[in-house]
Design a protein that fits this description.
The complex is a heterotrimer of chains A (327), B (403) and C (322). Chain B is of the alpha+beta class. Helix content of chain B is 52%, strand content 18%. In chain B, helix 5 crosses helix 6. With 322 residues, chain C is of the alpha/beta class. Chain C is built from eleven helices and twelve strands. In chain C, strand 7, helix 8 and strand 8 form a beta-alpha-beta unit.
Chain lengths: 327, 403, 322
């Protein structure tokens, strides 16, 4: 177990390093930051001074090392646009994104697992077919368009939900969040549903496929043959085994959920990290872009790590495979 | 695959009605894409054809021919009038001036059928009036709305001065044309129907080219990985794992942030995102194929690796690859539209469906839904059809599911 | 032999698919006494497994029992609703499946899968359940049962897992066990051990067993009576001696001829030419007619049962005259 954790940690560090190099070099290709930073009327001497001050005269690998050392110490540089440390800006925006992602995740899981389970148990029923049709539309409909439709339906045509921004915030237990207020909830629910829809549909299909696969297996028939009650067979045997593929897919999709936050936050003018990233890209705010993409990659690796641990908890076979590999 | 094998496959495919419909819809979109320039009534890329007076018109409104303004100076010299047009070249309206007896002059407009909004005569001497006209409160300007017979008469109590220069301005009404904007117009006055047809063209093109290139590159690398094994395999598969671990949208966003926007760059971004799926699938199927006796036999015959891989192994991987290709076309179209929506995909002058939806975004708040709704519906139908098609093909490859 | 406690009479189980009605089981009748093993033999698709699942009341959509009765101790199981049938399953009738690697849930400890079987029918404190599980495991010859209880299925061999499945089947002292090819997936030596254990339990506990298989040689060692099925219908039923020693039905003879051990060394194995007819398009006559050497025109007519002895019955117009 411990050696597994260490192995994973080492792998993660390598992935992050590779990614940061790719990003660092890639972002250099966009353009010279000096041209953005200093005014066009500045003299050539000023220009050279700025280049030296920013360390841009050094070879690329040395620049990267400086960047890396600073980054490890928590200094990601300052935003070209906001003139503030990147880390401060990210931390400022983080709660909004986490809030949105968390609610969306809960909605996606809460709807998809029961719906997928039902559709898998009763694939021929009207409800089962409707769930599948819904999920087909859900995986096909572009997130941004679906978000706009929601705005048109619930924000404009029958204006029952507000559009844009987080609404009223409140602080309890040291956490400032819009989830403490009713107004905040009315703001978050529509973007969260919009963000959840794609993942919800995907997970429905995964759950249904897994359930149908498991239903054919003998241990389910054996459980019924033991006289176990249907509800217990469904929960203890079918759902439990369906969790194995579901956890893997959910891990990947949680990462995608964060990525699609970019779109949802743009459509709903949600003041989170996704919107910040798009704005940074549009104005070529280089430190912001690098920091955000690296931060996202870190989050991804962390999620994958959690998924691996969960797999071991759910499926005893995984643990013994690992034990054999270490021994 | 033999002919009878194919017929059998097609027959099993056709058992599902939704599969046939989705195939027909997909083909319809491909035809739309190919023949868009022939079907579309206007060229949405031709910026000179656009006129702001057509912007944001709802579904079913007609294109208006904007009204013209013709100007001419009328010089009076000793009871004779000489007219000098000062309109820009290409103006269809023209003005005439003729004396109509003493102290009277009539100003007319050609061609005769032209519908005028008004006719204005400026710089009249104080003694003169225009029949049926209204004088400007301050300036010596007389205006006649909808002049009868496209003619006005200037009359004066005194004889008209011998030396005077008048200015006549004729304005024609905006005119309806027979051209109907069946799906309305966008904020540039583009015909949405044409824009959508061209948008389909771009989306289908990007989808096919990107998914196709990814298929060729990814399958090639997957086969190479399976054949060579060892270090080659390890490197390629690490790269695949790395790519599969990252969300497609963010990778696309990062690449386009670096490269800037444009059709070829979007295609490149999608290829970078998608090749890994093919590589993984091709490798796993190729490895299981390589373990079979016929490959052993081919190796014993000293057939070249390329020949074994391309002629023997590849055809056996093809069904899975084609399923992936179908689903990835849908994914590519969806990804392109998302990137365009975020403003890093295609340029504004050549709108894809995603771009059209994005450009309609700000107008939904003023209840102008059509700009976003119609391209969205088209996009959705297109992606649903491709996904259904891919699902059906996958079911056919999995005999256990096909009962 | 004692009076039969279990009777199946005129059972029809059909599947209503989009392609048509698949008549998997047609007019099956048999009975079973305590301490008796009835072997059901047939090719795949002969309806033998469907017969077993019909008795369990576990026929899935789109199939259902169309007619006939299945009575256990005088109670007609086909008349029971789902909940009443559930109370019978595992307690009065137990089932053992073919593939021991698939019969146990890979994510649950053996203990939980055994407890679950008891909890479904009785409210017993954990200590008692534990004792009963240990006892059941011992009775099928499992060494160190305490350790096995906390193990996961993947930590054990196929033979061990099948013993556990049998222990679970025996756990609540059922009257009847249905075993669907329980030893087919196992090594020959393990097969022999398990068959020995099962026979002992049947004799000790006086329970009835239906042993479904395609393998006649296993049955000759274990079964008291054998029923031969083909394309959903009964061909011949009799004591093991009557079937193995003096089969009268042409199909049974063919089946016996294709058993490897009954052929002389070096002799070519005999196959039955042709294929089983589609269950979708059955005539009213003998389903074996198209592959039978003794076929005549009358074989197209419905075949009545012929009682050859008190135990031996046959469905054929042209049986072998011994």
């Amino acid at each position: 177990m411990l050696s597994f954790v260490l192995q994973r940690l080492l792998q993660s560090v390598i992935v992050v390093l590779v990614l940061s190099i790719v990003l660092f070099v890639g972002v250099r290709l966009i353009g010279n930051p000096v041209d953005i930073l200093i005014s066009s009327e500045a003299s050539e001497a000023d220009r050279l001074a700025a280049i030296t001050a920013l360390g841009l005269d050094k070879p690329l690998w040395e620049q990267y090392l400086v960047f890396l050392v600073n980054a490890v110490q928590g200094d990601w540089g300052s935003s070209f646009v906001y003139k503030e440390p990147v880390v401060d800006i990210l931390l400022q925006r983080l709660p909004a994104s986490l809030e949105l992602g968390l609610i969306a995740f809960v909605i996606a899981i809460g709807v998809s697992v029961p719906a997928g389970l039902y559709a898998g148990l009763r694939p021929q029923s009207l409800l089962g077919r409707s769930i599948m049709a819904f999920s087909l539309i859900g995986v096909s409909i572009p997130t941004f368009w679906q978000g706009m439709l929601l705005i048109v339906a619930f924000g404009i045509a029958l204006p029952i939900l507000p559009v844009g921004d987080r609404g009223q915030l409140a602080t309890h237990f040291g956490i400032t969040s819009s989830l403490w207020t009713l107004d905040g909830w009315s703001h978050v629910i529509m973007p969260a549903f919009s963000l959840a829809l794609l993942k919800m549909s995907l997970l429905m299909r995964v759950t249904r496929a897994a359930v149908m696969e498991i239903l054919r297996l003998d241990f389910v028939k054996f459980a019924y043959a033991k006289g176990v009650k249907s509800r217990r067979v469904v929960i203890g045997h079918i759902l439990r085994n369906a969790l194995v593929p579901l956890v893997t897919v959910t891990g990947i999709e949680l990462g995608n959920l964060l990525a699609y936050g970019v779109i949802t936050e743009t459509v709903f003018s949600w003041p989170g990290l996704g919107k910040l990233l798009i704005n940074s890209i549009k104005v070529l705010d280089r430190p912001m872009i690098v920091a955000q993409l690296t931060y996202t990659a870190l989050l991804f690796i962390f999620i994958n790590f959690i998924v691996d641990i969960l797999q071991m908890v759910i499926d005893p076979r995984v643990k013994s495979v690992l034990r054999r590999r270490v021994a | 695959m033999s002919t009878s094998g194919f017929t059998d496959y097609a027959a099993r495919f056709a058992e599902s009605r939704s599969a046939i419909i989705s195939l027909a819809v997909s083909l319809f979109f491909v035809l739309c894409a190919i023949f868009a320039p022939l079907i579309a009534l206007t060229d949405p890329y031709d910026l000179t054809q656009l006129q702001l007076s057509d912007a944001l018109k709802p579904t079913g409104s007609k294109r208006m021919l904007p009204g013209e303004e013709a100007r001419a100076t009328i010089r009076l010299e000793g009871g004779k009038a000489t007219i000098q047009p000062v309109s820009p070249a290409g103006t269809r309206l023209s003005l005439t001036a003729e004396p109509c007896g003493a102290n009277c002059m009539s100003v007319g407009v050609r061609p005769e059928g032209a519908k005028l909004a008004n006719l204005q005569i400026r710089n009249l001497p104080a003694s003169a009036t225009v029949e049926g006209g209204k004088k400007h409160p301050i300036q010596p300007w007389w205006t006649v709305d909808n002049p009868e017979g496209n003619e006005v008469r200037i009359t004066s109590s005194n004889p008209l001065p011998a030396n005077a220069t008048l200015l006549a301005i004729a304005k024609s009404l905006d005119q309806e044309t027979d051209f109907v904007f069946r799906l309305g117009t966008d904020n540039f006055g583009r015909d949405m129907l044409s824009a959508i047809l061209y948008g389909i063209r771009i989306s289908v093109f990007v989808g096919l080219v990107a998914a196709g290139a990814a298929m060729v590159i990814g399958t090639g690398l997957g086969l190479l990985s399976a054949w060579r094994g060892g270090l080659t395999d390890a490197i390629i598969m690490r790269a695949v794992d790395f790519m599969l671990g990252l969300p497609a949208l963010l990778v696309g966003l990062a690449i386009l942030a670096i490269l800037g926007n444009g059709v070829s760059k979007v295609v490149l971004a999608i290829v970078i995102v998608q090749w890994s799926y093919y590589a993984r699938t091709a490798r796993s199927f190729a490895i299981s194929e390589l373990g079979k006796e016929y490959v052993e036999a081919a190796r014993c015959l000293r057939l070249s690796p390329t020949r074994i891989m391309l002629r023997h192994v590849l055809p056996n991987c093809m069904p899975q690859i084609i399923v992936l290709f179908t689903l990835n076309i849908a994914a590519a179209i969806s990804l392109e539209s998302s990137l365009s929506f975020l403003g890093v995909g295609l340029p504004l002058t050549r709108p894809s469906l995603g771009m059209l939806i994005a450009s309609g975004y700000e107008f939904i708040f003023s209840h102008k839904y059509w700009i976003s709704i119609y391209p969205g519906v088209v996009l959705l139908v297109m992606i649903v059809a491709m996904n259904l098609l891919g699902d059906r093909l996958r079911d056919l490859n999995n005999p256990r599911l096909d009962r | 032999m004692s009076e039969p406690f279990f009777q199946v009479d005129g059972l029809n189980t059909w599947f209503f698919t989009r392609q048509g009605v698949i008549k998997s089981v047609r007019d099956i009748s048999f009975d079973l006494a305590r301490g008796e093993v009835l072997g059901i033999v047939g090719e795949s698709g002969s309806g033998k497994s469907v017969t077993g699942m019909s008795v369990m009341g576990q026929i899935d959509e789109p199939g259902r029992i169309v007619s006939g009765s299945i009575s256990l101790n005088g109670e007609d199981l086909t008349k029971l609703d789902f909940e009443a049938m559930r109370r019978y399953r595992g307690r009065r009738i137990a089932m053992v499946f073919q593939n021991p690697l698939m019969t146990l849930n890979p994510l649950m400890r053996v203990r939980d899968q055994m407890y679950e079987a008891i909890e479904a029918h009785e409210n017993v404190p954990h200590k008692d359940m534990h004792a009963r599980c240990i006892e059941a495991l011992k009775s099928v010859g499992i060494p160190s049962p305490e350790e096995r209880l906390t193990a996961y299925p993947h930590e054990m061999s196929g033979g061990m897992r099948q013993r556990i499945v049998i222990a679970i089947a025996l756990l609540l002292g059922p009257d009847l066990i249905i075993a669907d090819e329980p030893t087919t997936a196992l090594d020959v030596t393990i097969q022999a051990q398990i068959i020995y254990q099962i026979r002992r339990q049947i004799d000790e506990r006086g329970l009835g067993m239906i042993w479904i298989t395609h393998d006649l040689s296993t049955l000759s060692e274990l079964a008291d009576r054998i029923m031969v099925m083909y394309a959903g219908a009964m061909m011949e039923i009799g004591t093991t001696e009557e079937i193995i020693g003096s089969a009268r039905h042409p199909y049974t003879r063919k089946l016996l001829d294709s058993v490897p051990s009954r052929n002389a060394p070096g002799e070519k194995l005999k196959q039955i030419p042709g294929n089983m007819p589609s269950l979708l398009a059955l005539g009213k006559g003998c389903p074996f007619a198209n592959r039978c050497e003794r076929v005549s025109e009358i074989c197209g007519e419905p075949v009545p049962a012929k009682q050859l002895s008190g135990t031996h019955r046959i469905w054929c117009y042209h049986p072998f005259e011994d």
